[in-house]
Protein 1
Amino acid sequence: MRIPILKLHEYLLITIQVEMDDQTALQFQEDLLNKIHDTGAKGVVIDLTSVDMIDSFIAKVLGDVVRMSKLMGAQVVLTGIQPAVAITLIDLGISMREVSTALDLEQGLDKLRLELEG
Amino acid sequence: MDIQSCVEVRNEWDIVSARQLGRNMAKELGFGNVDQARITTAISELARNIYLYAGKGKICIEPIDQLGKKGLRIIAIDNGPGIREIRKVMQDGYTTSGGLGAGLPGVKRLMDEFSIESTVDVGTEISATKWLR
Amino acid sequence: MDNLIVQMINENQETLKNNWLDEVNIFKEKELVAASTTMKLSEETDQQFFELLIKHINYHDISKDGTLDQFFDQVLHTGLPLSYLTQGLQAARRVIVNFLVERISDKERLITIYREIDTWLDPILNRVVENSSQIWERTVSIQKTALLELTAPLIPVFQNISVMPLIGSIDTERAKLIMENLLNGVIKYRSEVVLIDITGVPVVDTMVAHHIIQAADAVRLLGSKCILVGIRPEIAQTIVSLGIDLSLFPTKSSLQKGMESALEYTNQKLVSNK
């Protein structure tokens, strides 16, 4: 199962709507980095509104994706993390402070625009 | 659903099965969104540990009723190498898998009750309970 | 129960009562604060207490019919300590045993009587302790619920800005509730900025600081900016000595300053109409 990546101007938009198993997550990581490379995208928004569970593995994959994207010249913003998910991440001791976040897709794009201009 | 349901964990997809089993049972028992997420995440972590360290094992989930107090119990069993230093493993920040997995302290925080028994070269059994609020 | 003994006790009630009152008064003088109302109340209570004991001896066992429970409830609610009841019962045991020992010389009989007296009084003693611990647990549970109900909601103040005033002590259970309220509120009001005001938190120790930081981390994960306000000097000390990195959470000393910051961050401004 592959997660669709959409291009909007110089941004890449991803909405994760399925429960990710390990392989899907790793495939997504690979696909995103390839797409960044192919399109030269400068900003990426990953929307997690429909995700109802993030365990330590998925959290690591997401964190890695952010770091790897940065190395390739793209800023990443995670949006729409749900309260239940945030609480479990905090319980697990994962605060992902190195990752940029925003409430929704719109605010995510605004944030990227600010970061890229600033 | 009064009986225990178990999932054999041999590969990554079993982790997903175990999660779904847990979420469904949690939902049916009446746990709210947040606790459903906690339970599902705890199961995922425990199943992943089995897959990573023991190769195979099983996750059992059962509804419990103790003098009117209702809840859900997760039991993770494997016949893997066992944990040599339980105290060390239960310390925050300790990891042997290179950052993968938040470890057992995280699972303990997600749940209300947590107990672990492990014997080197024999196996490990972890039991974690969440009570309905 | 030995009918002769019961008879002996009934016939000598006055003496027994006086001996018992003597013992109880010694205890009261030592232990009770001698407020005159408490003392007066307790005299009536003493009478009731003794009458109940006699009734118990005559009817074999009244520990289950509710009269004792009523009496104990009443006593504990007037503020007399648990020790009044337990000491009173022990004094009754002593007084009755002494009385009987003086009048009965047969050693074997005395031992049997002594054992019997234990079986009279132990059920009452157990009932007292059970009862008072139930009252205790009930009180604690009510207070706990009351404290949980103090959970403050997230208050949307301006567009995109909400405030959560934290009031009272924050234990782990309350922290969980506060966290849920906070996060659900952020989603509901689409708050870009959340001001967490800790002015009303009396004690900020390691655990509380930990809970506050966790709440701030969670808000950030959701995508909102979190500003901590109401930081008193002692709290600043605790946070620094704990080595907590607050670089992601700006802090302001007052809600006012925090609000100015929030308005700036959301490109809003308060304009006077003068």
Protein 2
Amino acid sequence: MPVYDQSYRRYEARGALRRTRFWPITREALRLILSKRTFLLLLLAAWVPLLGHVAYVYVTTQYPEVGRVAPVDGALFARFFEFQKYFVILLTIFGGAGLVADDLRTGAILVYLSRPLTRRDYVIGKLSVLMALDLSVTLVPGLLFYAVAVALAPDTLLSAELARVPFALIGQALLVSATYSLVGLALSALSRSARVAGLALFGLLTGLELVRLVLTEAFDLPLAALLSLQANLSRVAEALFGVESGAAVSWWAALLVLVAAGAAALAAIRSRVRAVEIVS
Amino acid sequence: MSGTTVTKAPFNQGVGDAPLVEFRELAVWYGRVVALESASGVIRPGATGLLGPNGAGKTTLLRALLGFVPWKSGRLSAFGCDPSREPLEVRRRFGYMPEADCHIGDMTGSAFVAFAGELSGLPRSEAISRAHEVLYYVGLGEARYRTLATYSTGMKQRVKLAQALVHDPELLLLDEPTNGLDPDGREEMLALIGDVARRRQMSLVLSSHLLRDVERVCDEVLVIDQGRVVTSGTIAQLTGQRREVCDVRLKGEVAAFLTDLKDEGGDFQEREDGYRVTLPDDATPELLFRLARDAGVQIRHLRPGAETLEDVFLRAVGHREPG
């Protein structure tokens, strides 16, 4: 019997289109990414700083004199995010570089866009992957850190002075994750190679940071801090956690740069995520 | 979890029923390049061939149907919807098998097809169940747990067909489905597509530059050339209205003979071993003998024949070779 004599069943039970059409895209991409053991190890490693910070809070509760040198305050949480930022970068590079680039290279973009999906559904689906990964190493450990810290040192953490910390944690986690996710996805969309996209993201972030360092340190141009995404995120974190800063750049200018970077990334994604590439 | 409910048109409509797709004076431009210009036609239930040389505008028409490219002027409707205004409604009723590769290499065949089903709006459990069925149907039952990266070209073509079929579309759009296949693979793919069209009663559009593929599978054909639909109808109609043709081998200075033939309203195509001559309406092969005598040419061989779809096609596109 020829193979095509196998059965084929008609399907009539068609329902309404769902609003969460992006969800299968996110779920399948996450499943593929998390099936890689090295990536899981990276995710686990991203929780190590949490242990260190929790241990530090514990030590300050046991030995108050340690707390006098480096108290449990907003700066501690801002520093926690400085650590997590590097894991976010690594997760974005290894998890996000191929998200769109691979679809463009293999033509899978047509599998998505020839379905009842909008380009927005596709982008939301892919962006959610990076957001989920990035929030898993920023928001989740951040809130856990806060909860454990409250349990260990309730008098300090629940004081009016530190009341802003949980909100700052959420805000900073969202900002860090959204910034790197958007920039990572844009670079992925601008390339057909995951490797090139990953290297481009690494090069962009380290390159801009190096330029900032050279311009601020060697040429005494403090406004050059606006060039670096990391520096801008740190500046906003200082403002959110109420850390006194001697930075010459205001937090709102830093935030504005981050918003502009996000908008540019969205524009790049929009221009590249198409079923048909039209070369005029 | 809400959205627009789609009322499906009934399946199994026979050829001659209301058109699934209609386009009138359709013009699509890519920048300054004209891809379709005043293209008009209808696609009815059944198997329709979209035939034309490379660059004729076949893929552009499919892209316009899917709402991928905007059109500059004209009108296009699919299932009574305007694809530019209601792309999601239209796309959920199409199954699209693109010409180029489209796969997610890390996925297994079954995961990929189930994923495609979910993207088309099937519930997850139904998508998984149908993915297995469809993969068996296209002959990938044994290979369905292998990753797509390990598939051969033929298997990739089959899995492309499976992802287009999984949600049981009302109209299957197949863009050059036999591309890159060896002769056996091509035969199998055509058999499969023929089965989809005839036994499963699914309407489909087969876009191809290969006449034999279209002739084998389709009932109707739209011939596109330089962005226009140059001829259309059922294959029976197109080849039924055929003019008489003869394969001839000539000896002598044939230029005058051929000019005279053209003057009489006939036509010819040069073949490897002679000419295929299309006689003017109501003419008989005796005309050829008369013209040969007048031009001083010997007819060394004459075999009356019937005009094939290829002749119709070549006549429609002005003798340019397909592909």
